[in-house]
Every structure is written in C-alpha cells, then in structure tokens.
Amino acid sequence: MKSSLFLCLVVSLLFAFNAAQAQNLPHSCAKPDEVSVSHLHLDLNVDFDSKKLTGSAKVTLDRKAADKSLWLDIKGLAIEKVTDESGKELAFTLGREQADLGQAMEIELAAGIDTVTIHYASSPKAEAVQWLSPEQTTDKQHPFLFTQSQAILARTWVPCQDTPGVRMTYSAKIQVPPHLMAVMSASNPQEKNDTGVYEFEMKQPIPSYLLALAVGDLKFKSLGPRSGVYAEPSVLKKAVWELYDTPRMITAAEKLYGPYRWDRYDVIFLPSSFPFGGMENPRLTFATPTILAGDRSLVALIAHELAHSWSGNLVTNSTWNDFWLNEGFTVYFEQRIMESLYGRKYSEMLARLTLDGLKEELNELEQRDTWLKLDLVGRNPDDGMTAIAYDKGYFFLRMLEERTGREKWDAFLKSWFEKHAFQSMTTEGFLDYVSANLEGADSIPVKAWVYGPGLPESCPDVVTEELANVEKAASEFLGELKASDLAAKFATKDWTTHHWNHFLRSLGEKVSTNKMQELDAEFKFTQSGNSEITHDWLMLAIGSDYEPAMDRLEEFLTQQGRRKFLAPLYTRLSKTAKGLRRGKAIYTKARPGYHSVSTGTIDKILGWKQ
Fold first, then answer.
1. Which H or E run contains 39?
2. Is the pLDDT of residue 9 over 70?
3. What's the whole-model pTM score?
4. Catalytic site residue 390?
C-alpha cells in the first residue's frame, strides 16, 4: 500500500491519539516493549542552502511482538516514503501534533520485516539543528552546523524511538560540501577528504539523545593516544593548550571506576552559540569556547563530560524523571577526578561553590521540583535541567560516601557501573541496588533525599579556608578597605577563577557606584576575557546599575549563547522596568544567533512574543 504524506496527515486527523501516555513513557510516542530499534543507519546530505538534512534512516528491528507495528517519534520531519528491504513501500500513519512531543509515527509491519527505511527531510527550523552562517562562526570563513539532541530533540532530525530507555548502535554516511569536515558521536576522521563523504560507526549501543553531528571548517590535534581536539583553525592552538590534562583525567577516571569503554575521548569546540557548557556525546564531547580561559581554570567542565562516559552514557537514566542518575553521579565523579588531579583543597572549593549555588536555586523552585525523582509528565524535560539533578544529586551521593566510608563506596559505585553497563536504569532500580549491595545503607535516610523536597538535615557541609578568606576580603571591601589594598592584604594575585567567582557573589546584588568603579579600575573586570568572571561581574553590574559595564553586557549577551550565562543575566535584567527594556533591546539583536534550547528559556523570562 502506497502512503503519501498528505494521506497520512488526513488519517492522523481522523485517528488522533496520545501514544506516549498509552505506553507510560512521559516523553516518547514509542512502544519499545512491542518493537524496538536495535540499529540505525543514516544516509544524509547536508544542504546549507536549504538548511535541510535530506536522505534516509534505515532501522533494524527487535520484534518482541510479531503482530505489532513500529512506533517512532518525529517532529517537523517531511516523510517521503517508508520501504522494506526489497524497496516495497510500507503503510504508515502520523499522529496528531503535540507541542513538545511532535508526532507519533506508526509503521505497519508484515511478517518477516526486520528492517525499515524512512526517506525524509528535516525542517530548516529543526530544533536540534543550528545552521550558522560564516559570520556566526569564530573564523567567519565557512558555514557551520551542529546538533543538540538532548533531551527530546533527536526526533527533529532523525526518526527514532526518542527515549533514553531505548539503546541502539548506529552507523552513518554523511555528504557535506568538500571544503568542510563532518564529525559525529562515533568513529571520526582526523582530517578532511576530497569527496565530502564521511562514514561513521558507533559499535556501542546508545540512547537517541546521544546522536550528534557537527559540520564545519575543522582541524584536529592529538592530545595523546586516546584523545584529541577538533576546532576551527584559529581556536585549535588555544584549545589544545587548555585541554593539556585530558589524558591524565582519563587515567584518573579509570583508576576510580573501571575502564573507559568508548575507545577514544575527543573534544570539539563549537561556535559560541552552543547552548551548553558541554554535551557528553560519546567519543566526542561538544564543548563551548567559553571555557577557554587561558589558565586551565575551567577544565572541570571537561572532567564532568568525561565522567559522563560512565554515568549517563554507560549507565543511563531510564526516563527524564530519573535525570539525577545521569547528572548527580556525574558531578560526584567530576569532583573525584578534580580531587585526584588537583588535590582536596581545590576540589572542596568547587564543592562549596556548588553548595552555595544549589541553596540559592532551591529558593526559586517549586517544592515538588526539588525532589531528586522528578515529575515531568506533561512538561518539557528541559524543565528538569536544574541544580537539583546535578547538585542535590551530588550531595546525596557524597552523603552516602561519608556515611559508609570511601573504600566501601568506591567498590559499590564501580560495581554499579560494571553491573549495569550499556543499560538504562530507574531511580527505584538504584535504590534497590543500594539496599542489596551497600553495607550500612539501611540506616541512611535515602527516601528523604529522593522523594522529599529541599536539602535534608543529613546534607554534608563543606568548609574551606580558601573561600572563608575570600568572604573576609569581600566583607572588608564593603567596609573601609580600598580595592587597591585587596591584592596586598589577601594575595589576590594567587586567586583562581573560583576565588573571584566567590568574591563577586559575596558582595551581594548591589554595590555602590564608587565601589564598582574601584573594583573595575583595579582589576579590569569589564574587560575580562574569562567568561565565568565576566558573568558574575555583569550580574553585579546590573544590580548596581553600573552603566560603564552595559556595553560589555550587550557584547557578552550577543557574542555567546550559553544558557548558563544567558538565563541569570536576562532574569536579573527583568527585575526592573529599565532592565527589562534593556534586556528586550539586546535580545532583539541576539536572539537570531541563539540555539532553540536557549531561546526557549529566554522567551519565558522576558515574556517574549514574536
């Protein structure tokens, strides 16, 4: 039976359904308990003129129920046809469109059909895909493309079962303009070829949110036998210097929790519009250039993304309600890597900053959203990407370590990764594993952490002399101490980025104009090239109505799209009528250069209507 897109749309209007609720998958229309995808092969052409990915997705099936259809997730895809192995067209039906979920796609399967090929094209407005003009790149010579599939955006560029509960291997053939290079979350080339055709293979099974593609004028430089860096030519030298310790991080991680299972660990630095600090795509972390501080002070982000190779990529949250299983474990693992490489004194400073940020964010969240086990049914899973999953999750695991002892805890955590490698797990599965395998856990109030609000009384405290000294400096500066005397009294020449972060945050939301001028004259904060320091300085400048920093604010908001920086700055701007006007004026210029992940957040903050 031949099915045209028009016919399928008509049928979908007659037979509207909510497949996600029927399968009890809060963010997917798939029915993997009946038929699941075990392998995906992509054959795509990258067209920068039309801003489309065009070609096919061939899926290999695990048919658990012989008489059932294949259910996939799609959003905004133009489906041309569906064929079996012989080329015969198969009937398919598209469900009604749902705001965040997109559409269910049901493909009828006759007996003996184990592979299906979907011929399709993505939309120029696909939320996962950002198409950058040459002017939007660092080198401003060639266009650039990158994808961001987490949490449920893979369906906007690949028809798939878009849930972390389904894992698949994949391969791909990608055609790009000959002067550009393609890389994926798979085996990768290390130099351009003459044809513009690149082939990829990912042998280890991954969930759909880890599908990733980037295309641009890329160069590669090795960091060691298992790691290297991709970047635009002008960025590469700086990136290689900044990531010097990456091989040591890999070794430290393996000593903690077992072998690295993904062959290589490479990093690609994307243009500045990338909405996150990093994305843990296996074999190829996508990273923001905002961590290139010139002093290796922000490489904790690389430790974090590397740690995801165990927590998240190897053992994955089964649903986005279990997101803390990815991120809480990863923050814990990141802290242990940083302690191993740079010492407990340094890692505790990072932990204290984490705790301070967590407490601040707790005041801004609804009580139910402060549970570790989230309830995101009917909501975009991006709503769960808060400090709760990351930092409350970290302190929960740190509490377990402190209560049971590091030796027992490390053995337990290593066994967790080994036992559940390449599996998707629920919160309840983890708690059962704790109960059965972690000696002494029965006396620990785990349910208060997982199924309760805020921070329980058992939350570890973090005391660090380093930051106590910084707080003293801030207090004295707010009193009579001049900025010009800070360096001599508190040895600020030895401060790291994290010392300065804590100093600026300890000043509160508003400082007098005279004090702001003193700081700026002494430490040149408005001219800082360190993104973390710049962010905290601009937060203070907005609250203090410090006009000399406002041009830098506009520059910072228009030249990078990292949501971690954008959201707090626009939020603080929105607190006053003057600030809101300024924020909207800047956003009008900046919004076309942001990824959809960022605009989705900032639109809400500013009440933006197109």
1. strand 35-47
2. no
3. 0.92
4. yes
